[in-house]
Amino acid sequence: MSVHSVKLVTIGENLLASNDQAAAHNRDRLSEARVLALNLMASPGAGKTSLIVGLLGALQGRAQIGVIEGDIAGSIDTEKVVAAGAYDAVQINTGGNCHLEANMVERALIDLDLASLDILVVENVGNLVCPTHWALGEHLKLCLVSTAEGDDKPIKYPEIFAISDVIVLNKMDLIELVDFDRDFFYESVRALNPKAPIFEVSCRTGEGLAAWAEWLLSRREELLCVSPS
Amino acid sequence: MSVHSVKLVTIGENLLASNDQAAAHNRDRLSEARVLALNLMASPGAGKTSLIVGLLGALQGRAQIGVIEGDIAGSIDTEKVVAAGAYDAVQINTGGNCHLEANMVERALIDLDLASLDILVVENVGNLVCPTHWALGEHLKLCLVSTAEGDDKPIKYPEIFAISDVIVLNKMDLIELVDFDRDFFYESVRALNPKAPIFEVSCRTGEGLAAWAEWLLSRREELLCVSPS
């Protein structure tokens, strides 16, 4: 058992190093095309696709948005974001894999017209653990969590909160119904990540989406040296 | 990259076979002690700990219940179930691992007084993907999902619904607030798993918990050949 474990770790490190190279290559391509790439990570059902749909509405006419949808199976999210106005969308089915990897994104980028995009949102597989270790080529990691999941997610899944560049708290419309201690949540996040902005939104009511979308546009300008639209 | 992948799969299979052996050993120990073991799997925030607390309330005075809590980090769930009347509880911190494995449960069993227990609930790490491949020694696999996560979880995470012996749909008190299509959910589950009973509950209001708890007791009697209490 321990011998196998040691081998697994070694090969795992090689795979992660290989993944990081592919991710760096993706990031270079995206930066060159002035496409801000967001790695959107969350539990199943936190509202990842709804957040993308909200972004499409908030930036309509101001930014062309592409989407890569990562799922174990199915393509209903891709259909949703195309219907909501995504400029382009590609589905990746991981066939059981619990996270996206950079080479999957590399393959998906072939099918996207990067020259026409301003923002690319990569919706990772719903999982608060495994995606944290696999860079995809993103400029920003976003951790989305919903009030319905409870205020203890930072305590239980610290790494994803620690490594994220921005945290979005969704389903604010349910906060009074689900025993969510907002102060406890903020304190727990701040202990792990003192700096990342935290946006409170409700994809259902639209609350807070504009502020988050504006922040994302401003990050594109800063990180990719593009002038304001 | 492909060479590394092949190696990883081979070693993964060895690890899984080794895990299955440890799981069989755990199951033998538990069966001998007439302890029904439940592997409780769900997304982060679906209500795993609340379901255990609900079970403790529903079977108070009728069954001694032990709990193994699996988390990446933290011990707040163990504190909760002990406060709620668990006969005994053990915390496993996986230190980043996205699922429990049989050898972790084997280690935890040392700290539990099996002779005094009727039911052991093993709360897995919050994840709809990784726990599916790792048997722990359970008699029953339970997939818990909440209405707040949306009706599309069976489409996106088919394997966990396919392999589970029982499915519990939690947060029924929120169903009218979250655009959950009950018929679509049931059809999707039934396409993957025609037989597993589906219980609708609200851990918040207590709705449905008694029926599920009675079912669990009856499964103990059947599977472990114990007479009704």
Structure description:
The structure is a homodimer of 229-residue chains. With 229 residues, chain A is α/β, with parallel strands linked by helices. Helices cover 42% and strands 17% of the residues of chain A. Chain A contains eight helices and seven strands. Chain A has helices at 2-32, 48-58, 76-83, 102-110, 153-156, 158-163, 182-192, 209-224, and strands at residues 36-42, 65-71, 88-93, 119-123, 140-146, 166-170, 198-200. A seven-stranded parallel β-sheet of chain A has the order 3-2-4-1-5-6-7, with helices on both faces. In chain A, α1 (2-32) packs parallel to α4 (102-110) and α2 crosses α8 (209-224). The model of chain A is unreliable at 1-11 (pLDDT under 50). At the A-B interface, α1 and α5 of A face α1 and α5 of B.
How would you sum up this structure in a few lines?
Chain A contains eight helices and seven strands, in the order αβαβαβαββααβαβα.
Relevant terms:
7 strands; alpha/beta; 229 residues; homodimer
Across the major sheet of chain A, the strand order is 3-2-4-1-5-6-7
- Report helical residue fraction of chain A: 40-55%
**What is the chain-wise order of helices and strands of chain A?**
HEHEHEHEEHHEHEH
Number of helices of chain A: 8
Quaternary state reads homodimer
Largest interface: A-B, 47 and 47 residues
Portion in strands of chain A: 15-25%
Shape category of chain A: globular
